[in-house]
Amino acid sequence: MTKNKNNSGWRENKWIRGAIPALLLHMSIGTVYCWSIFSQEIADYIGWSKGAAEWAFSFAIFFLGMSAAFLGHIVEKDIHRSSLIATICFSVGMAGTGLCIWYGGSYQHSLPVLLGIYLFYGFIMGIGLGTGYLSPVKTLMLWFEDRKGLATGLAVAGFGAAKAIASPIMTAMLTGLSVKKVNGVGDGVWKMFLILALAYFIMMFVGHLLLKKPAGWHEPSKTEKSPGMFEVIKSKPLATYVGIWLMFYLNITCGLALISQEKMIIKCIGLAASVGIISTVSAIFNAGGRLGFSAMADGMKDRNTVYKIIFVISIALTGTVMATKGIVNGEGNLFLIILVLALIFMVNAGYGGGFSNVPNLLSDHYGMSNISAIHGLTLSAWGFAGLTGNQLASWIVNHFGHWIDHDGIMVNPEGYQTVLYVTAVLYVLALFCSIFFVRPSEKALAAKEKKVG
Fold first, then answer.
1. Under CATH, to which class is 9-218 assigned?
2. Is 180 helix (H, G, I), strand (E, B) or coil?
3. Would you identify the CATH topology of the domain 227-440?
4. Which of 67, 144, 247, 259 has the fewest CB atoms in 10 Å of its CB?
5. Mind listing the pLDDT tens digit for each residue in 125-171?
6. What is the pTM of this model?
């Protein structure tokens, strides 16, 4: 396989053909993490509980992982087809969700409305998320061969930054588009979905048109014999792939468990008035972790070292907040407030960094020939974590500790503190996988031998 080094002209410019379309795609689909902004409004508008509506987000993350796993071979063969599938599914999913909410305003407590939201936001939009997430990754790695971590980190940072950018826009739209109230909620919620569906379709379609692999890059044709995805995986010790999948899954589960309770934890430590600002800062840390940790890994002999750093930092901060009972005792104590905020920010950064380093870690071990398919299979960990992370935290909070009135808001500080005991154990297991299962790649071993020699 070869790549033409001549990047003259916009048609062969790595920023126009790789970085910009990747950002357009990822900054669109990354708004899935804005769910908490409007989830209560959706639940109230259609007359269902927030817990029932919450499954739409869990399904979206699950089908993100599953579509990436099962459609990775399409991305491998044709990024134009996969990016178009992503554009259509994501925008149709958003528009369909808006129409279901609109209909639910007149027919509250309607099961078909709830199932319709699951279908559009969870299943259809989930397919758009999975194919959209995968489509630009290999292309970026080909354009930026010498700085793969920086390139993929830049795009995946767009996924993380989407929440920080879109959150204030969505908040303003929820209020500004509301003309009347239904069940105590403004009708701007369904209008917002329809408008954003069109806006994101335009952004993603432009990204789809611009996205292109470097001239001269040759993919194996159907007549050429090339090892399949599972054959490539089995060419290395199976424990290595299992270890990568498990530590990826555990890191996402821990991240979602804490992030899903982030707003309530902030209120527990007496910063209710600053929830919006802190959530935006945590989103910036999420995006910064995706870019920073992946760029850092470019200078390391073994990219797995980044995961060890992420897990050690997460364990240390989680353990410190556990030992000091920072969430329970944090209000009015500046030191404990700083500790809790440090935990929130660094878990967000590690959560993002875990995503951006996976494709490059996989390419170091298995090469580039099937990287989209292997990366897609690995993203199934994200899908399963989407079903376990949020739900695990919610179950713990509802079964441990006790609810108290905190300035008119019901919170469960001991419950949120208990979540940390579970995530601490999971982080330790993830570190164990990183140390004992994921062996150094041939590239890392060669670099080590060269240094010794």
1. mainly alpha
2. coil
3. Growth Hormone; Chain: A; (1.20.1250)
4. 144
5. 999 999 999 999 888 888 888 787 888 887 788 888 888 889 889 98
6. 0.86
